Structures are given as C-alpha cells and as structure tokens.
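EI: anyone free to look at a 675-residue chain?
SC: sure, send it
EI:
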Amino acid sequence: MGKYQADAEKLLELVGGKENIAAVTHCATRMRFVLNDPSKADEKSIENIPSVKGMFTNAGQFQVIIGNDVSTFYNDFTAVSGIEGVSKEQGKALAKQNQNMLQRVIAVLAEIFTPLLPAIIVGGLILGFRNLLEGVQIEALGQKIVDGVAMTNADGTPIYQTIVDVSQFWSGVNHFLWLPGEAIFHFLPVGITWSITRKMGTTQILGIVLGITLVSPQLLNAYAVNGTAAADIPFWDFGFAQVNMIGYQAQVIPAMLAAFTLVYLEKFFRPRIPEAVSMIFVPLFSLLPAIFFAHTILGPIGWKIGTGISYIVNAGLESPISWLFSAIFGAVYAPLVITGLHHTTLAIDSQLIADFGTTNLWPMIALSNIAQGAAVFAVLFLHRKDTKEKEISLPSGISSWLGVTEPAMFGINLKYVYPFVAAMIGSGIAGMFSNIMGVRANAIGVGGLPGILAINGNIGGGWFAFTIAMIIAIVVPFVLTIFFRQQGIFNKIDRVGAQVVTPDGAVVDAPEISSANTLPTESTTEELFATANGTVVAITEVSDPVFSQKMMGDGYAVRPTDTHVYSPVYGTVTSVFDTKHAIGILTPGGAEVLVHMGLDTVELKGAPFNVKVKAGGSVTPETEIAEMDLDAVTAAGKQTDILTVLTNAEKVANLEITGLGETTAGKVIGQAEMK
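SC: here you go
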C-alpha cells in the first residue's frame, strides 16, 4: 500500500471520479486537474483530506496543494485511478476548455499589466507628491502675486500660493520628480509593448523599439494635439499620401494593438525565413510593418476606441444616476479582483487621465482597498484572543490599507464570507459619496490610505471629501463585520462563536483558540540566509497565490541579480525535482525547506537550471546548489523569484525575516524557531 493511497482514493472520489478527470499532472507542490465538470468537485470535503493543504482554481485548472511529497502522492493517485498523467503543456491546453473567451482576455490583460505595476505604483506616489507641492493652494502662504497683480479666480475669490511658489528647494524637487513621472506615464506605451512581447514569447527588444516609436520626440506630443491647428500638425509626405506625425503618450489601446501586430508578424515570419538569415530579416519584416501600421491605421483606431471608452465611463460617473453607477462599481470592485477583471480598470484609468487630466474611477478603487482592510481589522478584533489568527490578520489588514488586497481577501475575508460582504457594502457607500462629491485623482497606482496623495485637492470636494469617504470605508465595514458575525449573517466557518454540545447535552460557545494557552515546548532556532545576490522580499509579495497566501508554508523570496543559487540553511538535501527547479532540504532542527527557483518554471523542464547537489548531500549557506539562467527564465515569460519556504508549518513556532531589501548571497536575513 502506497504512503498516500488512502488519501489518493478519497481525492479521486471527491473530484468526481475517474470519468470527471480530463487530465492530471503535477508540479513541485500541487496536483493539477483539468475536470470535465468542475462543479462536481467537493471542495469542502477535499480540504479535510489530511495531506491536502489547500486548493484553488486558476486558468481552468483545479489545483490541489500537497507539498514537497506531491510526486509520491501523484504516483499513488495514478496507481489507484488508473489515469496516465499528461505533460504540463498538455494540461494547460486542455484547461482552456474550461475558460471562456472573456476569461482568456482577462488572463492576457493580467499578464500584460502585472509586470508594469511596480512602476505604476511608484509613478502614482511621485505624481501624488507633486500634486501636494504644486497643486494645493495654502491660504497661510498668502495670495499669489504675478507682476505685481494679485491673482483671483473668475468669481473673484483669491488664488493662494502653493509650496513651489514660496520655496525654491521644493520647486526644484518638483521639477526633478517630473523626470521619472513623465517616464512612467507619458512613456507607458513602451512598457506595454515590451510586456506584450514578453508575455507572447517574442523578441522583447523589438517591443521596446516599437514602443519608443510611439512616443518619440520627433512626433507631436499627444497632449498637444487638441491645441494645435490641423495645418500645423507635422506629417510624413509619401507623395501619394500624407501621414500625421502624432505621438501616443499615455495611450494604452494603440500600444496594445501595435504590439500584438508585431508579435503575430514575428510569429508568421520566423518559421518561414531560413535560420541563417533570420536574425536580419525576421526583425526587419516584423518591426517596420508594425511601426507603419501603428501610425497609419492602428494608432488612430486605438485612440478613438480608448477615447470612446473613457468618455462613456466618465459620462456614467457624471450622469444624473452617477450615484448608482458609483455605488455598484464600489461594491463589485473586490469581486472583480477575484476574477481578474480589475486589470481592465488600469487601462480605463490611464485613458481617463490622458483624455481629462484626472480620473474619477481610481478614488473608488482606493476606497475598496481600505474597506477590505477595515473588515480584516474587525475580524482581528473578533478573534483578538486567537494568536494564530492575529498572525494572519494583522499583516493582511496593513497590506490592504497600503493598496494590496489579495492577502486580506483570500486569507481572511473570503474564508469567512461575512467580512467580504461587509467590505463590499462599505466600499459601495464610500464610492458613491466620493463620486457625488466630485473627487478625482491626478494619478493611478497609489491605493489604500496613501491614495489620498493622488487626489486632486482643487476639484470637487478634494481631499476633505476623500477623507470623509475613507472614514466611511473604515467605519461601515468594521461595524457591519461585527454585526454580521453576531447575527450569524453570511457567516460561513467563523470559529469565534461556534457552539459545541457538552457531555450533559447543553449547547455552549466553543472555547476560543489561543496559542498562548498551549504548553511550552523545547525549541531550536535555525538561521536563514539569502539564496542569491539581489533583493529579499516578503513571501506575500510573490505573485503565485500558493506561496503568497502561505498555503505551502511561510518563508521569503529573493529576486536575484545573477545566476548563482546558494543554500538558505545548513542541512541535508532530501530531494531534487526531476525538472530541476526545486530542491528540498532538511535542517538539523527539523525544518523542511523547499527552495523553488522561479515561478511556474516546472514548464521549462529543467532547461534553465544546472543543479549542483544530490539527494543525501550536506549543504551550508556557502554551498552553491544550482545555477539559474535568468535570461532564459525571463524569455519564457516566467518570474525569477527564488523562494525559500518552510513547508512543515506545524513545527515552526515563529519565523522572523529581518533582512528585507538589498542583500548578498549567504547573508543572514532571518531565523526560524522550531518546536
């Protein structure tokens, strides 16, 4: 009898039996099923299988988290089911059967915009700070005087000075910050065209060049088009035709159309041109037509489409029923995050700013972040005696208030349901108030509480109105979460308030769980080391939900700057995966450590990895355990994060990561206290 035979038999039954399985495969940590009818999977019962650590559905695949022993589990599963596994590529191809066209479009948008988010967030902070310096009139600084004349508005009210009007230092800072601000938002098409070529697996430098041709200084800046007479717009004269030389600064859809044209041209020509001359002619025949089509057909069409969408959204938010539109959007934005549809709002927000200078959509998104965080803090209050719950809730709530809601939503609110509903209601009310007051943002990317930096203080209710909206987004979800829990409304599995039957038949409240009441145990402290030169980040920042939601266990990640990968601990190698992308290590103190190189790199079948250790060998933080070809991983559209995960969470008393930020391989960056 196999080690996991009993669990495998249960899983086979609970996913709907052999006849419901179209394909099954596995990666380093999870079983990946393509089910003929996903609704037949009994998720609640699957969660109770001892060897199952979690599950989720992604890209049409039903994924069951097993852990380091997934290969053994997989062998037992195929033995009891009689189903032969398929390759990862076959599994993904079959999974598309479970995705409709909308889901595929959403998946593409997510993969395009996700790599751009760090720059967009930084850009939002920069523009928000510039807004504070140059856009906020401060009465205490006095009325603005120009050439001896006191400035007034059309209605006669005085125009007061801003910080840049009275301080040369801050004026210089404001001027300097426009350099990165312009690079991020005006030249956004360059990032979009690069991201699309990266996602589609074609030549990324061609995508960058194409993007530059859309925003070149040779062209009339998109922001100057409306103020330029038609006769003064420069053009290329081909004799038989003239083409306007107009740039596409901050334009999203023209950049996307141009990039996909480049991608499919390259894919068309590459197999048809002899390899000996492909380096010359494939780029030539792909790039030049893509640039030409971008400026003659795709750009103008994309501009019209983008402008049309932004005007429709803006009209809806300024119409007589804007209160209803904004209430619905505020309430449903969080569910959009679950589906991935929220990525479409980035494009709409960018277009609104390009067309109107501000956006009335982004403030409601920031308020949704705040509402989700408030609901988490209400759960934290309700579970304040549960130390284990606190360890999850506190960082999740803080993260949400800083604009990243996934840990809060997936780790807490969706698990209990009632806080998620409370947050949706609070977000809807706050969004409605914000839009009624005319709040608009100058930039996007700054979510949660810092989102106030992006708000235009001189339009509508400005900062004051947005502050009130933030208070609504905090108070309403917090109060409703407590109310729903006390009344048992939408309450799914909350342990607080659960009831048990005593031996004498009485029904009483179950005792709350507190790790503080557990008996002390002997502990061993294991030092944790950086696995590579680069940047150490919290595991919650990793884009794979299996790791970021700590389904596999707690840990950290390093974003490497070179190819060398070292052991994160002292210990013994217990396993090297066939696909070479993951290595298991056991420490003297009993920590089971998984080193996972890259995200979703099981698909690469070991090609970018050169593993230098074998099972049974001893390792130290000075031991180079592998080399990872970063360029090959990136070219395949994967992320290069190197994860260190302590998978036997039940034996980890405390994990502390103190070395976040820039690091060098072998540097101590934290410690784990083992039970």
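EI: The CA atoms of residues 29 and 69 lie 8 Å apart.
SC: 👍
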